[in-house]
Design goal:
With 320 residues, the chain is α+β, with helices and mostly antiparallel strands. It has 8 helices and 12 strands.
Protein backbone atom coordinates (compact mmCIF):
# COMPACT_ATOMS: atom_id res chain seq x y z
CA UNK A 1 0.00 0.00 0.00
CA UNK A 2 1.25 3.40 -0.89
CA UNK A 3 1.56 6.21 1.59
CA UNK A 4 -1.27 8.07 -0.13
CA UNK A 5 -3.66 5.10 0.11
CA UNK A 6 -2.79 4.59 3.75
CA UNK A 7 -3.73 8.19 4.56
CA UNK A 8 -7.08 7.75 2.76
CA UNK A 9 -7.87 4.65 4.84
CA UNK A 10 -7.09 6.51 8.06
CA UNK A 11 -9.42 9.36 7.05
CA UNK A 12 -12.21 6.93 6.11
CA UNK A 13 -11.96 5.04 9.39
CA UNK A 14 -12.01 8.32 11.29
CA UNK A 15 -15.16 9.47 9.48
CA UNK A 16 -16.88 6.16 10.15
CA UNK A 17 -16.07 6.35 13.84
CA UNK A 18 -17.42 9.89 14.01
CA UNK A 19 -20.70 8.82 12.28
CA UNK A 20 -21.08 5.86 14.60
CA UNK A 21 -20.64 8.11 17.62
CA UNK A 22 -23.27 10.53 16.33
CA UNK A 23 -25.77 7.72 15.70
CA UNK A 24 -25.24 6.21 19.15
CA UNK A 25 -25.87 9.61 20.73
CA UNK A 26 -29.01 10.28 18.64
CA UNK A 27 -30.81 6.91 19.20
CA UNK A 28 -31.84 7.53 22.87
CA UNK A 29 -33.40 10.90 21.94
CA UNK A 30 -35.48 9.35 19.17
CA UNK A 31 -36.72 6.68 21.54
CA UNK A 32 -37.64 9.36 24.08
CA UNK A 33 -39.76 11.16 21.43
CA UNK A 34 -41.98 8.10 21.12
CA UNK A 35 -44.50 8.03 24.04
CA UNK A 36 -44.90 4.32 23.74
CA UNK A 37 -41.15 3.86 24.30
CA UNK A 38 -40.52 6.09 27.29
CA UNK A 39 -36.88 6.03 28.36
CA UNK A 40 -35.91 3.66 31.08
CA UNK A 41 -32.70 4.17 32.92
CA UNK A 42 -31.37 2.54 36.01
CA UNK A 43 -34.61 0.57 36.48
CA UNK A 44 -36.89 3.70 36.52
CA UNK A 45 -39.64 4.65 34.07
CA UNK A 46 -40.60 7.96 32.42
CA UNK A 47 -44.17 8.88 31.52
CA UNK A 48 -44.99 10.80 28.36
CA UNK A 49 -48.18 12.79 29.06
CA UNK A 50 -50.28 14.17 26.22
CA UNK A 51 -53.74 15.82 26.04
CA UNK A 52 -56.29 15.04 23.36
CA UNK A 53 -57.40 17.65 22.45
CA UNK A 54 -54.89 20.13 23.71
CA UNK A 55 -57.63 22.77 24.24
CA UNK A 56 -61.34 22.45 24.96
CA UNK A 57 -64.53 24.29 25.78
CA UNK A 58 -66.42 24.09 29.03
CA UNK A 59 -68.19 20.75 29.20
CA UNK A 60 -65.99 18.98 26.64
CA UNK A 61 -64.54 15.55 27.34
CA UNK A 62 -60.72 15.45 27.25
CA UNK A 63 -58.37 12.46 27.30
CA UNK A 64 -55.06 12.51 29.16
CA UNK A 65 -52.81 9.93 27.52
CA UNK A 66 -50.08 8.56 29.82
CA UNK A 67 -47.60 6.73 27.62
CA UNK A 68 -45.00 4.43 29.23
CA UNK A 69 -43.41 1.02 28.98
CA UNK A 70 -43.01 -0.94 32.16
CA UNK A 71 -39.47 -2.23 32.81
CA UNK A 72 -38.92 -5.98 32.71
CA UNK A 73 -40.56 -7.89 35.57
CA UNK A 74 -42.52 -4.77 36.62
CA UNK A 75 -46.26 -4.38 36.74
CA UNK A 76 -49.01 -1.96 37.73
CA UNK A 77 -51.11 -2.46 40.87
CA UNK A 78 -54.57 -3.94 40.33
CA UNK A 79 -55.99 -0.43 40.75
CA UNK A 80 -53.72 2.19 39.15
CA UNK A 81 -52.49 4.78 41.65
CA UNK A 82 -52.10 8.13 39.89
CA UNK A 83 -51.17 11.38 41.58
CA UNK A 84 -51.43 14.91 40.18
CA UNK A 85 -54.93 14.57 38.69
CA UNK A 86 -56.99 15.19 41.83
CA UNK A 87 -58.26 18.50 40.44
CA UNK A 88 -59.83 16.81 37.38
CA UNK A 89 -63.46 15.67 37.04
CA UNK A 90 -62.50 12.16 35.96
CA UNK A 91 -65.07 10.05 34.14
CA UNK A 92 -62.94 6.97 33.52
CA UNK A 93 -59.46 5.40 33.49
CA UNK A 94 -58.67 2.78 30.86
CA UNK A 95 -55.48 0.79 30.17
CA UNK A 96 -54.25 0.08 26.67
CA UNK A 97 -50.96 -1.28 25.19
CA UNK A 98 -49.39 2.19 25.14
CA UNK A 99 -50.21 3.01 28.79
CA UNK A 100 -53.26 4.58 30.47
CA UNK A 101 -56.03 6.87 29.19
CA UNK A 102 -57.69 9.17 31.71
CA UNK A 103 -60.86 10.90 30.52
CA UNK A 104 -62.23 13.94 32.31
CA UNK A 105 -64.63 16.86 31.84
CA UNK A 106 -63.38 20.38 31.29
CA UNK A 107 -65.45 21.97 34.05
CA UNK A 108 -63.59 25.21 34.53
CA UNK A 109 -63.80 28.59 32.81
CA UNK A 110 -60.04 28.95 33.12
CA UNK A 111 -57.09 26.85 31.99
CA UNK A 112 -56.68 23.62 33.96
CA UNK A 113 -53.17 22.70 35.25
CA UNK A 114 -52.39 18.98 35.17
CA UNK A 115 -49.55 17.19 36.92
CA UNK A 116 -46.76 16.45 37.06
CA UNK A 117 -48.47 13.06 37.01
CA UNK A 118 -46.99 10.38 39.19
CA UNK A 119 -47.75 6.70 38.62
CA UNK A 120 -46.95 3.92 41.08
CA UNK A 121 -45.80 0.52 39.80
CA UNK A 122 -44.26 -2.60 41.34
CA UNK A 123 -40.99 -4.30 40.47
CA UNK A 124 -40.34 -8.05 40.50
CA UNK A 125 -39.77 -8.00 44.26
CA UNK A 126 -43.05 -6.24 44.92
CA UNK A 127 -41.35 -2.95 45.76
CA UNK A 128 -43.26 0.21 44.98
CA UNK A 129 -41.65 2.53 42.43
CA UNK A 130 -42.87 5.83 41.02
CA UNK A 131 -42.74 7.22 37.49
CA UNK A 132 -43.59 10.82 36.68
CA UNK A 133 -44.40 13.03 33.73
CA UNK A 134 -44.04 16.69 32.88
CA UNK A 135 -46.79 19.10 33.89
CA UNK A 136 -49.42 20.08 31.32
CA UNK A 137 -52.00 22.84 30.99
CA UNK A 138 -55.37 22.40 29.30
CA UNK A 139 -56.57 25.60 27.69
CA UNK A 140 -60.29 26.07 28.20
CA UNK A 141 -62.09 28.37 25.79
CA UNK A 142 -65.46 30.09 26.04
CA UNK A 143 -68.55 28.38 24.66
CA UNK A 144 -69.65 31.75 23.31
CA UNK A 145 -66.87 31.90 20.71
CA UNK A 146 -63.95 34.28 20.38
CA UNK A 147 -66.08 37.40 21.05
CA UNK A 148 -68.34 36.67 24.02
CA UNK A 149 -69.05 40.41 24.46
CA UNK A 150 -70.85 40.48 21.12
CA UNK A 151 -73.11 37.55 21.96
CA UNK A 152 -76.80 38.26 22.45
CA UNK A 153 -77.83 36.43 25.59
CA UNK A 154 -81.44 35.26 25.92
CA UNK A 155 -83.25 34.94 29.27
CA UNK A 156 -83.49 31.48 30.73
CA UNK A 157 -86.90 29.98 30.06
CA UNK A 158 -88.92 28.09 32.64
CA UNK A 159 -89.17 24.33 32.45
CA UNK A 160 -91.68 23.46 29.75
CA UNK A 161 -94.03 20.62 30.79
CA UNK A 162 -94.31 17.56 28.57
CA UNK A 163 -98.13 17.83 28.40
CA UNK A 164 -100.31 20.69 27.03
CA UNK A 165 -100.85 23.54 29.48
CA UNK A 166 -104.59 23.50 28.84
CA UNK A 167 -104.98 19.83 29.75
CA UNK A 168 -105.35 20.39 33.55
CA UNK A 169 -108.03 23.02 32.88
CA UNK A 170 -109.95 20.59 30.67
CA UNK A 171 -109.79 17.89 33.35
CA UNK A 172 -110.90 20.26 36.12
CA UNK A 173 -113.68 21.62 33.92
CA UNK A 174 -114.88 18.10 33.09
CA UNK A 175 -114.82 17.23 36.79
CA UNK A 176 -116.80 20.35 37.66
CA UNK A 177 -119.37 19.57 34.94
CA UNK A 178 -119.66 16.01 36.23
CA UNK A 179 -120.22 17.21 39.80
CA UNK A 180 -122.85 19.73 38.68
CA UNK A 181 -124.59 17.07 36.57
CA UNK A 182 -124.65 14.64 39.50
CA UNK A 183 -126.00 17.33 41.83
CA UNK A 184 -128.68 18.29 39.30
CA UNK A 185 -129.62 14.63 38.86
CA UNK A 186 -129.95 14.13 42.62
CA UNK A 187 -132.05 17.29 42.98
CA UNK A 188 -134.30 16.24 40.10
CA UNK A 189 -134.72 12.74 41.55
CA UNK A 190 -135.61 14.17 44.97
CA UNK A 191 -138.15 16.51 43.38
CA UNK A 192 -139.78 13.69 41.41
CA UNK A 193 -139.85 11.51 44.51
CA UNK A 194 -141.42 14.30 46.55
CA UNK A 195 -143.96 14.99 43.78
CA UNK A 196 -144.83 11.28 43.59
CA UNK A 197 -145.28 11.10 47.35
CA UNK A 198 -147.40 14.26 47.31
CA UNK A 199 -149.46 12.79 44.47
CA UNK A 200 -150.06 9.59 46.44
CA UNK A 201 -151.02 11.51 49.56
CA UNK A 202 -153.21 13.83 47.52
CA UNK A 203 -155.21 10.91 46.11
CA UNK A 204 -158.59 10.29 47.85
CA UNK A 205 -158.77 7.39 50.33
CA UNK A 206 -160.85 5.11 48.07
CA UNK A 207 -158.25 5.47 45.26
CA UNK A 208 -155.36 4.66 47.61
CA UNK A 209 -157.31 1.67 49.01
CA UNK A 210 -158.02 0.30 45.53
CA UNK A 211 -154.39 0.81 44.51
CA UNK A 212 -153.27 -0.93 47.69
CA UNK A 213 -155.44 -3.99 46.97
CA UNK A 214 -154.24 -4.12 43.35
CA UNK A 215 -150.60 -4.02 44.46
CA UNK A 216 -151.34 -6.71 47.06
CA UNK A 217 -152.80 -8.96 44.37
CA UNK A 218 -149.86 -8.27 42.10
CA UNK A 219 -147.40 -9.30 44.84
CA UNK A 220 -148.63 -12.94 44.60
CA UNK A 221 -148.06 -13.43 48.34
CA UNK A 222 -151.09 -15.75 48.63
CA UNK A 223 -150.08 -17.86 45.63
CA UNK A 224 -146.52 -18.25 46.99
CA UNK A 225 -147.83 -19.60 50.33
CA UNK A 226 -147.28 -16.44 52.38
CA UNK A 227 -150.95 -16.37 53.28
CA UNK A 228 -150.66 -14.75 56.72
CA UNK A 229 -148.54 -11.91 55.35
CA UNK A 230 -151.11 -11.45 52.60
CA UNK A 231 -154.00 -11.07 55.10
CA UNK A 232 -151.98 -8.80 57.44
CA UNK A 233 -151.49 -6.35 54.58
CA UNK A 234 -155.11 -6.83 53.50
CA UNK A 235 -156.35 -5.89 56.98
CA UNK A 236 -154.00 -2.93 57.18
CA UNK A 237 -155.30 -1.51 53.87
CA UNK A 238 -158.95 -1.84 54.84
CA UNK A 239 -158.50 -0.57 58.43
CA UNK A 240 -156.59 2.51 57.20
CA UNK A 241 -159.37 3.18 54.67
CA UNK A 242 -162.01 2.80 57.36
CA UNK A 243 -160.10 5.21 59.60
CA UNK A 244 -159.94 7.82 56.87
CA UNK A 245 -163.62 7.69 55.92
CA UNK A 246 -165.06 7.30 59.45
CA UNK A 247 -162.64 9.40 61.46
CA UNK A 248 -161.64 6.99 64.27
CA UNK A 249 -158.25 5.20 64.82
CA UNK A 250 -159.16 1.96 63.08
CA UNK A 251 -155.61 1.33 61.74
CA UNK A 252 -154.25 0.87 65.28
CA UNK A 253 -157.31 -0.96 66.68
CA UNK A 254 -158.27 -4.61 66.86
CA UNK A 255 -161.31 -5.87 65.06
CA UNK A 256 -163.14 -6.11 68.40
CA UNK A 257 -162.30 -2.46 69.16
CA UNK A 258 -163.44 -1.41 65.70
CA UNK A 259 -166.80 -3.09 66.25
CA UNK A 260 -167.50 -0.59 69.03
CA UNK A 261 -167.34 2.28 66.53
CA UNK A 262 -169.43 0.62 63.82
CA UNK A 263 -172.80 2.26 63.33
CA UNK A 264 -173.67 1.56 59.65
CA UNK A 265 -174.79 -1.70 58.04
CA UNK A 266 -172.29 -1.27 55.22
CA UNK A 267 -169.46 -1.08 57.77
CA UNK A 268 -170.66 -4.32 59.42
CA UNK A 269 -170.04 -6.05 56.09
CA UNK A 270 -166.41 -4.90 56.27
CA UNK A 271 -166.27 -6.04 59.91
CA UNK A 272 -167.18 -9.59 58.77
CA UNK A 273 -164.34 -9.49 56.23
CA UNK A 274 -161.85 -8.34 58.90
CA UNK A 275 -162.95 -11.15 61.25
CA UNK A 276 -162.26 -13.74 58.54
CA UNK A 277 -158.84 -12.15 58.06
CA UNK A 278 -158.19 -12.43 61.83
CA UNK A 279 -158.89 -16.17 61.63
CA UNK A 280 -156.13 -16.49 59.08
CA UNK A 281 -153.74 -14.16 60.92
CA UNK A 282 -154.15 -15.54 64.46
CA UNK A 283 -155.98 -18.92 64.25
CA UNK A 284 -153.97 -20.54 61.44
CA UNK A 285 -157.09 -20.78 59.27
CA UNK A 286 -156.17 -21.43 55.65
CA UNK A 287 -158.63 -19.94 53.20
CA UNK A 288 -159.09 -21.40 49.73
CA UNK A 289 -158.12 -19.35 46.68
CA UNK A 290 -161.83 -18.85 45.95
CA UNK A 291 -162.37 -17.51 49.50
CA UNK A 292 -159.45 -15.13 49.03
CA UNK A 293 -160.94 -13.91 45.75
CA UNK A 294 -164.29 -13.43 47.43
CA UNK A 295 -162.64 -11.37 50.23
CA UNK A 296 -160.97 -9.15 47.63
CA UNK A 297 -164.25 -8.68 45.74
CA UNK A 298 -166.10 -7.90 48.97
CA UNK A 299 -163.44 -5.35 49.96
CA UNK A 300 -163.58 -3.67 46.53
CA UNK A 301 -167.37 -3.59 46.72
CA UNK A 302 -167.19 -1.97 50.16
CA UNK A 303 -164.77 0.64 48.81
CA UNK A 304 -167.03 1.26 45.85
CA UNK A 305 -170.13 1.64 48.01
CA UNK A 306 -168.40 4.03 50.42
CA UNK A 307 -166.65 6.13 47.79
CA UNK A 308 -167.85 9.68 47.02
CA UNK A 309 -169.34 8.41 43.75
CA UNK A 310 -171.89 6.18 45.55
CA UNK A 311 -172.26 8.36 48.64
CA UNK A 312 -175.81 9.61 47.80
CA UNK A 313 -177.06 6.02 47.73
CA UNK A 314 -175.90 5.47 51.36
CA UNK A 315 -176.58 8.87 52.87
CA UNK A 316 -180.00 7.71 54.14
CA UNK A 317 -178.76 4.40 55.55
CA UNK A 318 -180.05 3.78 59.09
CA UNK A 319 -177.71 3.87 62.04
CA UNK A 320 -177.69 0.75 64.26
Amino acid sequence: MSEKSFIRCIILITVLMICASVLMAATPQQKAANPANAPVSNGTMKIAARLDPVSAKVGDTVTLNLGFTLPKDCRLPEKPQIEGIDNLSITGIKADPSGLKVTFIADSLESIPIGPVKLTYLNGKGERLTASSDALILKVGSNMGSSPDKQHLKPIQDIIPAYPLWLPWVLWTALAVLIVACAAGIILWLKKRSARRQGILAAPPYIRARNGLEQLEASALFESGRIKEYYFRFSEIMKRYLEEIRGFPAAESTTEEISQFIALDIDRELLAILKRADMVKFADSVPSPSQKSQDIESALEYISCTSPESKPAHEGENLQ
